[in-house]
């Protein structure tokens, strides 16, 4: 009887760990209507050919929100990607330290050039930390017009989302204000098929 119980316990633990690897980040209400419009699940009729992403571009609104931020720089893209992961790990540690819930999906602002990259990683919070933590700062968004590209695919193909937004702006006689910023609606950890990862790409518009 003890042997059977031990085997059942091992199987349950394995299933629990596997489920955690695929757990999505918590999502936030749409900047456009305060309802979950932006967080729609991937359409069931998505078809991928040669890993081509699916991109849906539409107008949106940015709501006033408060983000806890950390920033790093790098000389190569791989180094920037690695530092981005470390920044989010540090942010998660601080949320746990101050017993603050993560109110939405993680967000990142990135600037890239051939030899220099900056990464600003952030998490949505409802209030500031009780004390100042080294390396942290806050970013407060204001209500403004924006465009969002709902991107489903490998994140290495995200430049296609930037191109789609630029094309949409041109067709709709609008201009981009500032850099693009990303909202990771899907958690890529442990996911083998990256085809259906959702990343929302935003930019403010004139």
Entry summary:
By secondary structure, the chain is of the alpha+beta class. Helices cover 26% and strands 33% of the residues. The protein has a single domain, classed as Regulatory factor, effector binding domain (Multidrug-efflux Transporter 1 Regulator Bmrr, Chain A), CATH 3.20.80.10.
How would you describe this protein?
The chain is of the alpha+beta class and 206 residues long. It has one domain (2-205): Multidrug-efflux Transporter 1 Regulator Bmrr, Chain A. It has helices spanning 2-21, 77-97, 159-171, and strands spanning 54-62, 65-74, 107-113, 116-125, 136-141, 144-152, 176-184, 198-205. Strands 1-6-8-7-3-4-2-5 form an 8-stranded antiparallel β-sheet, covered by helices on one side. Strand 3 and strand 4 (116-125) form a beta hairpin. The longest helix has 21 residues, at 77-97.
Provide the descriptors you would attach to this structure in a database record.
globular, single chain, alpha+beta, disordered N terminus, 206 residues
